[in-house]
Amino acid sequence: MPPKPRQRPESDYDVRRFSVGREMSRNALRQLLTEEAERGGWELHRLRRYRDGSREIWVRRRIIRVRPTWEVFLD
Question: CA nearest 46: which of 73, 23, 19?
């Protein structure tokens, strides 16, 4: 049996969740999400629209973990 491809755990992402009322237009929401993506490096992860017209939005961005380089010289 071939090994399963390794998937990144969800903890490698910084996730932000916010709700938007039904009074916000699709165009205004698109503009808001575009600004978040360009300014903060966020990407749309999930969007849920409810019967009352409100929306719940999850955006995420990858957490970059930096390893210290000085550990290489200690060996």
Answer: 19
The residues that bridge with 62 in the sheet, in sequence order, are 13
Name the nearest CA neighbour of 34 among 54, 57, 8, 6. 57
Enter the pTM of the model: 0.66
- One-letter identity of residue 42: W
DSSP secondary structure, the chain, as one string: -PPPPP---GGGEEEEEEEE-TTS-HHHHHHHHHHHHHHH--EEEEEEE-TTS-EEEEEEEEPPP---GGGGGG-
Per-residue pLDDT tens digits for 2-41: 665 555 554 689 999 999 999 999 999 999 899 988 998 8
